[in-house]
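task queued by scheduler; priority normal; single chain, no ligands, no partner chains; default sampling; output format set to structure tokens
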Amino acid sequence: MVIFGPAIDVRPLFPRERQAMLDLLRALSPAEWAMPTVCPGWDVHDVVGHVLNDHMRRLSGSRDGYGGARFADDETLPAYLARTNEEFVRASRQLSPQLMIELLDHLGPRLDAVWAAQDLHGTADLNVSWAATDIDSPAWLDIGRDYTEFWVHQQQVRDAVSVPGAVEPDLMAPVLDIFARGLPHALRMHDRPEGSMAHLEVLGPAGGRWGVVRQDARWRMTRPLGEPAAHVSMDQDTFWRLATRGITVEQARQRSTASGDAELTAAITALLAVVA
């Protein structure tokens, strides 16, 4: 759909990202599996358990059509996800690191096959709520969201154990590109004259430039051409951490440069690409 910009196909990258994660996990010591991560209350073992949950939940839902856990009365989506994620992580603490590695190695190719069978331009199995809440997401954005999820959790493990990696531009650039598709939603509360534009520039080997335009009473992705009403620039490390709240909005603003419409630049530097 035009609002989200051109499609991006991340499916060929899943095996490479997963191999980097498995290589990392196989090299960890018992002490490193217990290292705390940026995820509150979760150590490395817990984050890996969550990634395993992501694989199982998507295979159960997208491949097998199984609904899974039900919403509690009056439970919001963020509350539901927080509850069910925590339930699985607690259960996964009974699993050995070796078993979790073997399960990820086994389940990953099966999830790859599910994505390979998808029509990228069809309707997503799960809407990407941080990109839009009033229209259906395309499948490519849903698949891309899963890729960003796996990549980000790998980086959280790497941060915890001080092992850099998986930041080659061809692996990282799609993460930033998918996150940037949250720009229209980030600006949704700000009405502006038809044709108004805002630009985001992410600096670094994996970075890029993205634009949004006000058209037909909503913001839409567009090519970043002309003179925008607002412009924000930040480095690639700042952007992915902002989008996943690995750093605060204030920290991201301190690391960014902004010009033009202050309300629009503030909204861009509050972009969120996870459910929270």
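post-processing summary
- The CA atoms of residues 136 and 239 lie 25 Å apart.
- The two ends are 24 Å apart (CA to CA).
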